[in-house]
Structures are given as structure tokens and as C-alpha cells.
Amino acid sequence: MNERVNEAIAQLTAEIHAHQTVDGRFHFCFENSLITDTSMILLLQAFTKEKELTNQLCERLSSLQNEQGYWKLYADDEGDLSATIEAVFALLYAGYYSNDDLPIQKAKTFIRKHGGLNRAHSLTKITLAIHGQYPWPNLFHLPVHVILLPPSSPISFFDFSSYARVHMAPLLLLSDQPFVMKNKSISDMSDCFIREDQELIPEESRSLLTSVQEAVKSLTGLPHKLYLLARQRLLTYMLQRIEKDGTLYSYFTSTFYMIYALVSCGYQKHDPIIKKAIQGLIRHACSTERGLHIQNSPSDIWDTALLSHALQVRPASDVPLHEAEQFLLKHQQAKFGDWMVTTSHTEPGGWGFSKSNSIHPDVDDTTAALRALRKDPSLQSHYTRGLKWVLAMQNVDGGWPAFERGKTNPLMTFVPMDGAESASIDPSTADLTGRTLEFLGTDARFPLTDPRIQKALSWLRSHQKTDGSWYGRWGITYIYGTWAAITGMRAVGVSKDDRFIKKGVRFIESIQNEDGGWGESCKSDQEKTYIPLGESTLSQTSWALDALMMVYEKRTPSIEKGIACLLRKLEAKDWTYEYPTGAGLPGNFYIYYHSYNYIWPLLVLKKYSSLSS
User: Fold this and answer.
1) Residue 149: what are its φ and ψ, rounded to 5°?
2) Are 50 and 278 contacting, i.e. CB atoms less than 8 angstroms apart?
3) pTM exceeding the 0.90 threshold for the entire prediction
């Protein structure tokens, strides 16, 4: 076994090295759900004369259609209505297919069978509404004035999470008038619209909207001037957050809606801001086994930080990491972002996810980057700034959010949009809290007695599920959250005999597959309960093994079986190799990180090689 482990470590290291670019970063594809590809096709058709890229995207998109006519988000998905609608609309709009083609007929049969356009996700309906294929009034009810409301109101614009705000600004502008793109070549989707009684807004959402409307009435000033001021504030909010590459916050989806919002505000289709934004999105393209794909946000910082750390762990590789470190240092943020609204006493010092990201740092990328930095006195100022920023993001409840502290107003989850309960707020999560604790304990050497550590541990203990698991927000799902919680607790000195850790270990061992590995379905984050995949994946097997090794600190039968499975999976590379284990929005957005099949197995195999029998 030891020889096979050492061979696998050497092989992984060599393959990682092959992905290092001249500027020092490690470049891997961030492969996400179809919405970015379908939306890119729409943009290219509406705003450019570009044909080659459109055709490449259409070819890959068409190749992903299931024989029964639908598109899906992951292997064990039985067909996703919204993804199928988006794919059909994009392929027809591009002229890649016509309505008479069998793939479209089969897809439309699936769409109608599952309720038609009416049952699609809110964001799909909005894209259709922008192109005149769905009625705006049924979609959105928040007035643009929400950006003028003070913090004392039931909700204010800055109560939204950062990633919600950057999407809400253009969506509020688009829905306000409402905007419809005029283009004769837009495909007609009316045969998939099923007439039915208008769906009632849930009571909580109606109550929230009423409260907002009452708050708007209390604003002082002439109504029309307030209205124009609100629209201008939303426009300014977007323009001030455009990155150097032209994208809004480095996200494809927010930039997509921004482009249409700018047109709705009177910008010409060939305005330099719009042209630069589209060029920025084109640079999000990456190659996959099935063809060209548009990433929502390239993962260069995340991948480089995690891989640099993995390569440094003993036995350390001889891959040169100075350039990778310089790349990370270059992208430590020095600008104040929206996070300063709730933490104005803190200096900038975090890292973002993408290399174009200069104002939207997050806790996970920051701790990952700090782990990767050498313990060198010359880097102390960088390390200190990053550490202080991470500590400042700790929520009052003791846990850590992804992007900003204090974005926990429960009223925001009642905004009448699908996924609002996950996207509208940025609460403490087990994965962020656990991973931050793991960094603070292992790298920053915080003691168990530190009050901030104790608060975080209290939060974790209070959020363990009855089966011993923790819910992970940004990975799939209960394996991810439980791994992060256990490794974080152990790193700061919690005893292996702690009842919460023992309960977590029992959960991990109870779901081990017959082949020795672990695998969890993307369905878990929708059902809010653990759902087995039926097969093992590399990253989930690695997470489970890491948790067990942090507790047992020696080789056990369950660990041995897991390592054997990991080695087989690295050699076989079956369909599970590409299974998405990253999460964005439950039921809507999943991520296959191409880097994850290198990062986590390498770390775990190195840790295993240092364990005693």
C-alpha cells in the first residue's frame, strides 16, 4: 500500500505541475451548470456578430442533451426543467436548431410534461422575460426604492448578501419598467407556456412586500424625484463595482443581467462598457472533455492557494512555488469593498475567488491563501492583514459567513424569488466555520481557550444534526460540512473523545460505501438530508478520510479501505470523476472543480503516509 500511495503522490504532483502557468498560478476549469453557456449564447446573438464561439458553445450544449430530450445538472438528475428551457431557447435563438428538429421536439415535450415555462426557476423566467417570452408582472415585486431605505426599515438593500445585491441591482432595474429586448430573431417559446391561474405569493412574501411598500411611503421627497434617484443609485451601484476586465464582481451571471440593465437605462448595444463586459465574459471560457464552457467565475485564486498548500505539506514536492506565492501576494486585496459597511474598523487584506476580483474577498479564499504563504518574516505584513480581516468577519453568533458579517436578516429569505432562502443572506455555515477553525488552529496556532475559538465551537455544536452530520453550504453536502466541522474542531484542540466529534465520526463511518469510499448526491442540498450517490467520488472520499485521520491519528480498517478506494478511483477515472461536488445554489447551480481531483487526494495521501499503523 505504501508504495502505491507514494506513486500516486508523485503522479498527482507531476500532473499539478503541468497545470502551472507562466504567471505562477495553477489553472483548472471551474465547470458549472449550463446557465452560463446558454446565457453566453444569448449575449453573443444579441450584441455581437461572433459565430465561431457561438457554434462551439452550441455544439457542447447539444451534446449534453439526454436521449429522452432533457438536460440535467448532474449524473443522477432525472432531468432539470429550467436547464432544458434555457438550452432550448439558446439553441433556437442561435439558429443551431429549428422547431422542427427532433432534439427540440423531444425537449419541448419534456418541458410541457413538467409544467411548462410556468414551473421554471425565477432566474430562468427573468431571462425569458427579458426576451419577451414570459410576462414580467408575475415575477418580481420589489420596488427600486428599496435601495433608498435606511437600515431601520424592515429590509434595506444592504441587508442582502453581497452576491444577492450584485444580482438584485440589475434585476430591479430590468423589472421596474419592465424591459424587453427587441430582436426579430428571438425564438418563440409560447408553445411551452401553459395557461393556468396565477400562482399566489406566499403569505410571508406578501407581508414582506407590504412592509417594504409602507417603508417606501415614509421616504421624504417628491415621489418622481425619489423614483429617479433610486434608479440612479442602482445604476451607480453596478458601475462602481465593475472590475478591470469589465465584469461585475467577476461573476458571469451578474454581468449578464447588468448588460441588459444598462440597455434598459438607455445605453447603446455597442457602448464601450457593454463591449468590455462581453469580452470579459468571453475570457471566462475554458476547455472541457465535451468542448468549450463558460465559467461563472474562474477559480484561479482558490485553486492556486489550495494546490500550493497541498504541495508544501510533507512530504513536500519540488515543484517551484515562489511564482505561485507571488501570484497570490499580487492579488491580496487593498481596496475597501462592501464588507466595510458592517466592519468599517478593518483594513482590506482578503483574497477573492478569481484573479480579476479586487473588491469582493471571501473568508474561504483568504484562509486558503494564508495557508499557502511561507512562514517568512518578509511576508508578515501580508499575513497579518489577511488574518485580521478573517477575524473581523466572524458573526456575532460565533460562526463565519462566506463574504460579509451580519447578513442574517431572516426577512430577506421571503423575497419572492426561488432560492432566496439560500442566496439572499450570508449566515454562518458549518463548512466556513470549520475550515476557518482548521486554519486558525493548524496555521495561526490559536489556542482552544481563545474566546473567538470558543464562540465558534459553540456555534458548531449547536448546529450538529441529530444523525451527527453538519450541513455544508458550499460543497456537497453533509460529507462536506461534517468533514469541515470535525477537522476544524480537532485543529483547535478539541479532544477526539468529545461527544460531538464522536457522533460526527459515527455518521461518516455509517455512510462508507462497500468499495471503501464515500459518495453523496447533489440532491442532498435540496432535500436537506443525506442522500447517497450510490458510487464513491474522489473529493468526498478524501474529505471523509481527512476527518477520520484527524480523529484516529493512525491507520484503521475504515481508513485503509478508503485509501484503497481512492487509489482505484485515481486510476479508473469513471463517470464519478466529473461528478459535481461544489455547490452554488441548491437545485440550480453545481460545480465540478477540475482541481478537486488533485487537491484533496494529494492532501489525504500525504497525511496517510505519515500515519502509523
Assistant:
1) -70, 140
2) no
3) yes
